[in-house]
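Thread: Newbie trying to understand structure tokens

Hi all, I'm a second-year student working on a class project, and my supervisor (Dr. K.) asked me to get a predicted structure for one chain before our next meeting. I've only ever worked with sequences, so writing a 3D structure as a token string is new to me. If someone could post the tokens and maybe explain what I'm looking at, I'd be very grateful. Here's the chain:
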Amino acid sequence: MKYRTLGSTGLNVSVIGIGTWQFGGEWGKEYSQAEADAILDKGKELGINLIDTAECYGDHLSESLIGDYISRRNREEWVIATKFGHQFHERFTRTDKFDARSVVAQLDASLKALQTDYIDLYQFHSGPDDVFDNDELWETLNKQVEAGKIRYLGTSIGSNDNLHQTDASTKVGSKAIQVVYNRLDRKPEERVFPSCERQNLGVLARVPLASGYLSGKYKPGAVFGSTDVRHRHDAEDTRRKLAEVEQIAREEVPEGTDMASWALAWCLRHPAVTAVIPGCKDPAQVEANARAADLADPHRQDV
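---
Reply by user tm_fold:
Sure, no problem. This is what the structure looks like when written as tokens:
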């Protein structure tokens, strides 16, 4: 495994993280504690130390599975990133809650679910600019940092071209940007990444496999079940993306290289990107994701 420093935080994170939206039950499968343990154990074995989750992944369900696991391990060995701002009601249904009082309640609930005294990276979760521009919110959050409940603040931007929130990071005390970035969606390269580099912000690339389309497992015409969030994607857009994936596989992926590993390493080669946080359905997928670290830019200085 390789490690990089997350912007100015001083946190050394594995370049491959573990995304855990799937633990919330919205990717076609419900997870038992034993299954979550197996995924996280495999990550630990392979040197992964970064876990990304959110309060709204099943009403703290993902956090609870992680918390149960962490309570039986060494907390200090993990960098835990979670998010705030969306209250889960039922599958695929949330209500925005970004006011300062609600966010403190969400933070306390996340700490309880994660069975920890502190969160390493607490991220504003894809909210609109008008709620982001609330000084009271950031003043309250920075007080939680001072109280030791949060080590660092971050922003998970909803639009991958949200320059407004990215540019305001230094002002509000946010140290990292989480953004959709993958071979099918390169928009952050235009404005967001240059802003991150100017401010020395850490960058977590989410959806690095384009919702699994870049795994190479799906062909145009693939159909996803009603419990899988991908069934909500526009059918024509999905068809177009999968056709593009076939072309990328033919023209860009070296022969004998696993496409998913190639796609993750492709993200890591951008100088602004600190780490990728792909989801994983089982330990075998964790292992496949981890192989991408060996394909990352050999000329880039890692920790």
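A couple of things are worth pointing out once you decode it. The two ends are 10 Å apart (CA to CA). The chain has a mean pLDDT of 91. Feel free to ask follow-ups in this thread.
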